[in-house]
Design goal:
Elements (H helix, E strand, L loop, with lengths): L2 H31 L3 H4 L2 H15 L6 H28 L4 H7 L1
Amino acid sequence: MTDQMTQFWTTAFSAFGVSAAGFAILWPLSVLRRDASLADLWWGPGFAAFAWTAFAATGGRIGPHGALALTLVTLWALRIGWTLTARRLRAGGEDARYVALRR
């Protein structure tokens, strides 16, 4: 395997690990509270964490296209994170869709 491929997989697994850690923390909490929408709170931030971890793992060596992609992913992550959090706050708890699925 080339050094470039090794760097790619190291970066990918590091970024995945950080993102998965957020779900690993929230999922047991959501099971205990019987509130699946708690895990939703990490969807947006999880993508941003993935992107920023990958950025850090490359030593910040990205070109203008990479910087644009990082910016767009971060903006999207903030938007989806805010949307899902606001939905949960408006509902006063678990999203009704999850309640219906559980029935």
